[in-house]
Every structure is written in C-alpha cells, then in structure tokens.
Amino acid sequence: MKFVEYPDAELMMFDLADVLASELASALRRNDGASLCVPGGTTPGPVFDVLSGVKLDWDRVTVFLNDERWVPESHERSNARLLKARLLTGRAAAATYLPLYADAGAPEDAVDALAAAIEPHLPIDVLLLGMGADMHTASLFPGADRLAEALAPDAPILIPMRAPGAAEPRMTLSARVLADAMTCHIVIAGAEKRAAVERAESLPPEEAPVAAVLANATVHWAP
C-alpha cells in the first residue's frame, strides 16, 4: 500500500482528479478504449466535478460503478443517479455508462446479463474506491452473506450481496475484479478512516474486506 497524505480535502480531490485523468489518458494511448470504475456516495463528488471537465477522448471511455444499491436510478439512494449528475456531464457525458442495476425483482435475476456487459472491459484500467470505517469497500461488507464467495480467487465478476448494515440488496464487483485493476486508488478522509485502513493491513479480508485490494493500491487521505 502506498499512502499519500494531503493537508486538506479540497487539495486531495483536485490532485486525485488529475492523477485519474493522467492514467486514463495513458490507457487511451495504449489501447482503443479505457475503463474507469468508481464508487458511489458523496465523498468522490468533488473528484467527479473536476474530472468531468477534463479534455479526454471520453467517447472511448467506459464507466461503471464499484457497486450499486438495488434501486432504480430515480431513487435518491441510487449510486448511478449521483454518478450521472456529477461525473457523466460536460465533456465526460460522451463516455459509455454500464449499469449495475436492471429492472428486475432481485439482483440474482440480472447478474449474468450485467456481468456479460462488463466482461469485455476488464481488467479495469483505472479504479477508484472508497472505504468505510468498518473497512468495507464496494459492497464487500464484513459479515455480508456472500462475502466468502466474493473474496474467492475464482469469484465471478459480480456478486449480489446483502449485509446487516445495508438497507437494500447490493450488486458488487468481486474482490478478484477489483484487485486485478491496472491502477487502484482509495480515497478516504478523517482520523477514523486512516486508523481503519492502517488496521486493515494486518487483518484478513474476511474481517477487513478492503485488505483484498491494498497490496497494489494508493491510498489518498486528508484530515
């Protein structure tokens, strides 16, 4: 794990957006297209605001989420809703978006079709993750019902997931897919999360799921 400390969150968000843009540009120079995988939630919003205005060949970039709540885009808790408002706007509106939600009763009903759409864009070129104080990342929660399957070396691309602390069922990329990313960044803020990620380095992924991706990750932290 590489740890980068910033004096404040605003500087971190600007710097991180610049890093992600540079890595996407590098991937586009090497290949016909590039994949960008990002978290939901409000924390990465300022990164998205900056990144959406960067001059890139966005029409060659495919964007998808680390995980999604099993709710439609019209729902206030939809990660896709925030992503489209903050990242897939301006120049970045030209990117292709692949959803992790479908109009189906349960995530199990749509997992195969959603995974098939993502598979051609693996390995992920540029990955941004968040992390909770409980050391979860994406929807890989400690105590989740299918965590062991999601952590397995032969895990499928996507895993439907339910956890005690999650209000809705989730669809999440597996640890294997996240760990295989060409570049990986984790953005966190505050003393509690710094202590959590440092603790995760010495714990097994079953207790600290973020540990499954730390080996090749750069952690960006601000107070």
Which segments are poorly predicted (pLDDT under 50) over 5 or more consecutive residues?
none
Shape: globular
Give the termini separation: 19 Å
Task: Give the strand order of the largest sheet, numbering strands 1, 2, ... along the chain.
Answer: 1-10-9-6-2-3-5
Summed up, the helix count is 7
| Alpha-carbon Rg, integer | 16 Å
Main sheet? 7 strands, parallel
Brief description of this entry?
The chain is 29% helix and 20% strand. It has 223 residues and is of the alpha/beta class. A 7-stranded parallel β-sheet has the order 1-10-9-6-2-3-5, with helices on both faces. A 3-stranded antiparallel β-sheet has the order 4-8-7.
Outline the structure in words.
The protein is an alpha/beta fold. It is 29% helix and 20% strand. The strands form two sheets. It has a seven-stranded parallel β-sheet, with helices on both faces. A three-stranded antiparallel β-sheet has the order 4-8-7. A hairpin with an 8-residue loop joins strand 7 and strand 8 (170-173). The chain is globular and about 40 Å long. The protein starts with a strand and ends with a strand.
